[in-house]
Specification:
Layout: E1 6-11, E2 14-20, E3 25-31, E4 37-43, E5 48-54, E6 60-65, E7 73-75, E8 85-87, E9 90-91, E10 96-102, E11 111-116, E12 120-123, E13 131-132, H1 134-137, H2 142-145, E14 155-161, E15 169-174, E16 177-181, E17 189-190, E18 211-216, E19 224-228, E20 231-235, E21 243-244, E22 255-260, E23 268-272, E24 288-291, E25 299-301, E26 319-322, E27 325-329, E28 335-338, E29 346-349, E30 355-361
Antiparallel strand pairs: 1-2, 1-30, 2-3, 4-5, 5-6, 6-7, 8-9, 10-11, 11-12, 12-13, 14-15, 15-16, 16-17, 18-19, 19-20, 20-21, 22-23, 23-24, 24-25, 26-27, 27-28, 28-29
Length: 362
């Protein structure tokens, strides 16, 4: 039975929180009205709510709530040490807060946060302070081989912590690829074998790939999925090798968001789009694709979704799943929900601002 009765949306005009009391999903509260909320995160260990804000002129802000959004406290956002450079002669400063994750059930108060321009920050005091992870930032060739894809600089948008071993962590970086640590962040190794980057001089390069989102199956964390600029990829051996599981004929090739079933590592969902400069739904018709055999075959589901004159897509953090319920939000402020594992959809709202992230919460 689904115990998650709240839904948090990070939008261009605030954090919109929905609640389901048994009579459908209704707006419960709006926080940071009119302000861009790039990401929300709920720490399952403490039920603490986090909101990452992108103020543009005023920069990135980070807020924390211990009472499910009734009140918020601003905490000091991660900051690069003086003298750090993105490229030679270009000072590093936080331009976007793009990923959050707790550091493990056994690491009370510890958090990870990923940023643009490619820095991973850790906290040991529940966000009261953050420190730059040197092991990843000091990767050989970072200044030359990491670059922006859709944004000015490389960004860490995915942090995946192995529930069996909290020192084992993966990050997804656009554009650099997947990196793995087995010692809590002291050292990192690129894990991009099998990926193809058709935009590079060497498509099989070790570094320089563009994963759009990286996720792992909760019950089998050795199975990872990524929605990638060059296809949908799956690994069954802890990212040692990746396999392209895109549709050869069909829409499931390019997109941003991907969700994997908690119990079945062979079942995953994507929201397809047309790549590169287009970034619109395939044939201007919105659909969700699901595989139940590890990407060998994909099914298209369109019931309840617009099938003509549609121009909206789902960003990388704008798809989430709990039980048999899925939800995704779009770039034009539409919110769609399915209670049957994606086979049919209902419209929750057509009038929101651009949706950056969606997240179910208890």
């Amino acid at each position: 039975m689904n115990s998650k009765t709240q839904l948090l949306l990070g939008t261009r005009k605030g954090l919109v929180a929905y609640k389901n009391n048994g009579n459908g999903w209704k707006v419960d509260r709006v926080s940071f009205m009119g302000q861009p909320v790039s990401l929300t995160y709920v720490d399952p260990r403490t039920s603490t709510w986090w909101a990452c804000l992108d103020h543009g002129h005023w920069g990135c802000k980070l807020h924390r709530s211990y009472d499910q959004g009734e009140s918020w406290t601003e905490v000091t956002a991660p900051k690069y040490p003086d003298g750090e450079e993105v490229k030679d002669g270009v000072q590093a400063s936080v331009r976007y807060l793009w990923a959050m994750a707790h550091a493990g059930e056994d690491k009370s108060g510890q958090l990870w946060i990923g940023t643009e321009p490619g820095g991973l920050f850790g906290s040991k005091d529940n966000g009261d302070s953050f420190h730059l992870n040197r092991g990843l930032w000091d990767q050989p060739g970072r200044k030359e081989k990491w670059f922006g894809g859709g944004r000015d600089y490389a960004g860490i948008h995915s942090v995946v912590v192995d529930p069996r071993d909290s020192d084992h962590v993966f990050v997804g970086i656009s554009v650099a690829g997947v990196f793995e640590t087995k010692d809590g962040g002291k050292t990192w190794t690129p894990r991009n074998k099998g990926l193809t980057a058709d935009f590079l001089p060497d498509p099989d390069a070790d570094v320089g790939h563009d994963p759009h989102l990286l996720v792992a199956c909760s019950s089998n964390p050795d199975v990872l999925w990524q929605q990638n600029h060059c296809g949908i990829f799956r690994s069954s051996d802890g990212a040692m090798n990746w396999e392209d599981v895109s549709q050869q004929e069909g829409p499931a090739k390019f997109g941003f968001a991907v969700a994997v079933d908690d119990e079945d590592p062979n079942t995953a969902w994507v929201v397809p789009a047309v790549k590169d400069e287009m970034r619109i739904p395939v044939d201007n018709a919105l659909c969700v694709c699901r595989t139940e055999d590890g990407g060998k075959t994909w099914q298209e589901y369109r019931k309840g979704l617009p099938q003509q004159d549609s121009y909206d897509i789902a960003f990388r953090h704008a798809l989430d799943k709990t039980g048999d319920t899925l939800v995704f939000g779009t770039t034009t402020g539409n919110l769609y929900l399915s209670n049957d594992r994606g086979e049919s959809w209902e419209t929750v709202n057509n009038n929101l601002a651009m949706i950056y992230s969606v997240e179910f919460a208890p």
